[in-house]
Design goal:
By secondary structure, this protein is an alpha/beta fold. It has two domains: about 210 residues, Alpha-Beta Barrel (TIM Barrel); about 100 residues, Lyase, Ornithine Decarboxylase, Chain A, domain 1 (Beta Barrel), CATH 2.40.37. About 25% of the residues lie in helices and about 25% in strands. The protein has twelve helices and 19 strands. Strands 1, 11, 14, 15, 16, 17, 18 and 19 form an eight-stranded mixed sheet that branches. Strands 2-3-4-5-6-8-9-10 form an eight-stranded parallel beta barrel, surrounded by six helices. Strands 12-13 form a two-stranded antiparallel ribbon. A hairpin with a 2-residue loop joins strand 15 and strand 16. The protein starts with 5 loop residues before the first strand and ends in a 9-residue tail after the last helix.
Length: about 375
C-alpha cells in the first residue's frame, strides 16, 4: 500500500472556471499556466484549455513554452517575462511564440532581427513598478515597435498591483493612467488578471489573463460574490494513520509549541512540509476529517501533522483528511498560514496527482454559466 497523500485535479471545475471568466469578461482569454499551471500540471491543464478553444496560453519563460509545444500544444503561447536575449528569438520563431516587451534592450534586439515577425505585448508600468515602460517612456517605445519589421501585431498591456484589494485607490489610478497613456492608439488592450476580471469590469479591455481563478481559488482575502462562484480544481487529501489519547498538560510535536489543556484525542496525518504543506501553519489551522472541520495541533513536521479528533469520536485510522479543496478553500488555509493560495499550489511536491474528467469537454462547453449577483 502506498502513502495515502494525493492531489486530485478536477478538470470539469477548470472548464467551469474558464467559462465563468469568459462570461464575466466577454473578451479574449489568455489562460495563465506558468509554474506548471500553478502546480496543477501544465500539460494536462493546457490540453483542456486548448480543447476549450482558449485564445492563448501564457507562461513565464521559454523553457515552459517548449515543454508545451513538445507535448503537442498548438494554441498561441505568450512569454510573460518576454525574452532574455537575442539567442531566444530563433527558438521563439521555431515554436511560434509571442512575447511581452518590457524594456529597451528587448526592442534593440528586435530591431536586429530580420526573419519572421512576432506578435508582441507592449507592457506599460502604470504602478506595479516591476517591469514595463513608464508612461513617459511609452511614446518612444511604441514608435520604435510600430516601425520595427520584427513586430507583426502589438497589444498594449499593463498589470494591476492591488486589484485584489478593492478598498485601495491604486487600481482606479492605474486604470486611469493606462487609458491616458494609450489615448488615441488603435491597438487592443490587456489589463486584467483574475482579481481584475472579478472586480474591475471597466478594465476588461480586449484581452484578460485569468490565472488563479482558473484553478478555482479566490484572489481576495474575504468573501466576494463572484469569486465565491469559482469551483476548486485541486483537492489535496491524505489519511489518518495513527490515533492517540492524551491527557491534560501534554506537549505535542517539535518545540512543544502546543500543550493540551484538556483530555485530547489526536490523529496523525501523512502530510508534512516535504509535501508542500506550509511548516509555519499554526495550531488552529483548519482541516477536514470525513468532511467535518477540525484543527491542526502543534508544528507541521517534514512528513506528518497532528490534528484534533476530540470532538470526532467516530474517527478511525484510514479516514480521509482534506487539507484543502471542496469545503475548505485553499485561500482560507493560506490565510491561517500567513501566505496565499498561489504558494500552496506551487509548493506541492512528492504528492501524486490524479486527474478527473479529462475527456468530458464537448457536452460541458454547451452548458451556460449563470452568474449570481446576490
Amino acid at each position: 500500500m502506498s502513502r495515502p497523500t494525493k492531489a486530485t485535479i478536477n478538470l470539469s471545475a477548470l472548464r467551469h472556471n474558464l467559462r465563468f471568466a469568459r462570461t464575466l469578461a466577454g473578451t479574449k482569454v489568455i489562460g495563465v499556466i506558468k509554474a506548471d499551471a500553478y502546480g496543477h500540471g501544465a500539460i494536462p491543464i493546457a490540453q483542456v484549455l486548448e480543447e476549450q478553444k482558449v485564445d492563448s496560453l501564457a507562461v513565464a519563460c521559454i523553457e515552459e513554452a517548449i515543454v508545451l509545444r513538445e507535448a503537442g500544444i498548438k494554441s498561441p503561447i505568450l512569454l510573460l517575462e518576454g525574452f532574455y536575449g537575442a539567442d531566444e528569438l530563433p527558438v521563439m520563431e521555431h515554436y511560434n511564440l509571442s512575447a511581452v516587451i518590457q524594456q529597451q534592450e528587448q526592442i534593440d534586439i528586435l530591431k536586429r532581427w530580420k526573419k519572421r515577425s512576432f506578435n508582441i505585448f507592449l507592457k506599460i508600468d502604470t504602478g506595479m513598478h516591476r517591469i514595463g515602460f513608464l508612461s513617459e517612456e511609452f511614446p518612444g517605445a511604441y514608435k520604435q515597435l510600430k516601425e520595427c519589421s520584427a513586430v507583426n501585431r502589438m497589444i498594449l498591456m499593463t498589470h494591476f498591483s492591488c486589484a485584489d484589494e478593492p478598498e485601495k485607490s491604486a487600481t482606479p489610478e492605474q486604470i486611469a493612467l493606462f487609458a491616458k497613456t494609450i489615448a488615441g492608439k488603435s491597438e487592443e488592450t490587456c489589463s486584467c488578471n483574475s482579481a481584475g476580471i472579478l472586480h474591475w469590469p471597466e478594465a476588461h479591455g480586449d484581452w484578460v489573463r485569468p490565472g488563479l481563478m482558473l484553478y478555482g481559488s479566490s484572489p481576495f482575502t474575504t468573501s466576494h460574490k463572484l469569486a465565491d462562484q469559482l469551483k476548486p480544481v485541486m483537492e489535496v487529501t491524505s489519511q489518518i494513520f495513527a490515533i492517540r489519547k492524551l491527557g491534560v498538560g501534554v506537549p505535542i510535536g517539535y518545540g512543544q509549541t502546543y500543550v493540551t489543556d484538556r483530555p485530547c484525542t489526536v490523529g496523525v496525518v501523512a502530510m508534512g512540509y516535504a509535501d508542500g504543506y506550509p511548516r509555519h501553519a499554526p495550531s488552529g489551522s483548519p482541516v477536514l476529517v470525513n468532511g467535518q472541520r477540525t484543527r491542526i495541533l502543534g508544528r507541521i513536521s517534514m512528513d506528518m501533522m497532528t490534528i484534533d479528533l476530540t470532538h470526532l469520536p467516530n474517527t478511525n485510522i484510514g479516514d480521509t483528511v482534506t487539507l484543502w479543496g471542496n469545503g475548505l478553500p485553499a485561500t482560507e488555509v493560506a490565510h491561517h498560514a500567513g501566505t496565499i493560495s498561489y504558494e500552496l499550489f506551487c509548493n506541492m511536491k512528492r504528492v501524486p496527482i490524479h486527474y478527473l474528467n479529462e475527456a468530458q469537454a464537448v457536452e460541458e462547453t454547451e452548458q451556460p454559466v449563470t452568474i449570481s449577483t446576490i
